Amino acid sequence: MYDYLIVGSGLYGAIFAREGKKVLVIDKRPKVGGNIYTEKIEGINVHKYRAHIFHTNNKKVRNYVNKYATFNRFSNSPVAKLGTVLLPRASYYIENNQKDEFLIIAKKAIHFVWIIAIPLMLYFILFAKEGIFFLSGSSFGNSIMPMQVIMQTLLFTGISNIMGIQMMIPLGNEKVVLHSEIVGAFVDLIINIALIPKLGATGAAIGTVVAELFVCIVQYFALKDMVFDMYKNLPYKSVLLASVIGVIGSLWIKSIGVGSFITLAISSVLFFGIYFIVLTFMKEKLVLELEKQVLDKVLNRGMKHE
């Protein structure tokens, strides 16, 4: 008679089975360890089922699992992906005294957020009604205004993520990031107290937007010498023009009465299609770079299938 039946001998099952109880472990594979199983090939531990990394900052957990197996140290410098633009963790460049590369990547990241967040924000403000009705039904009509307001955080949270997480923390300015969040929380609290009793969810949304704006403001002034030129050189005119033309080319869909889903499908193709066509025509550098990357991937896949 067994105390427990465990299906699967992965990390949890294999450890639990060694805790002093009478346990039956069943697994469809002939080896213990699940996806983290490794086998030695020429003296090297090789992951049989693709690479798996165990990581924790909890010393108690780390010491516990090391009772049962020896873990190799692994230093990972991951890459955070913004669409098809790769943003290597800025700490890598700071640690290796590559400040110029750090600034280039930060500039490209802010540029990317600006180009992507603005059209997304505008589109979902304009078509908030259709989005709400499609996802939740007409009974949720009161959510339209809060959604239109909260969409503005797409830009502010994107920018604060770049300045705070990707720039200030690697530079050792964690306290400034913390202070910016405290300022944001305080502003949010004050606005919520003032507006929620009168405006409900819309008041809460306004509080969130203004709070995120204040977070960006605090971080901007802390990095002003470094980021001033980045913001100065953003493609304000081209993004504004492309957005306006996209709005004109898609807003008419609302008037033909084809239902929420069809409206969203047609309007999104028109809006974003027109937006990127205009930016391409205006030779916006980052858009051309993204389009080249996508085209190269498509061509490479086509060549592989031939």
Task: Name the descriptors.
single chain, 306 residues, mainly alpha, two-stranded parallel ribbon, two-stranded antiparallel sheet
Describe the structure.
- It contains 13 helices and six strands.
- The chain has 306 residues and is mainly alpha-helical.
- The relative contact order is 0.08.
- The strands form three sheets. It has a two-stranded parallel sheet with strand order 1-2. Strands 3-4 form a two-stranded antiparallel ribbon. It has a two-stranded antiparallel sheet with strand order 5-6.
- It has helices at residues 11-16, 59-65, 90-95, 99-126, 128-136, 144-150, 153-168, 174-199, 201-222, 224-232, 236-250, 260-281, 285-305; strands spanning 4-7, 23-26, 38-41, 44-47, 79-82, 85-88.
- Mean pLDDT is 82; it is low at 75-88.
- The longest helix is centred in the middle third of the chain and has 28 residues, at 99-126.
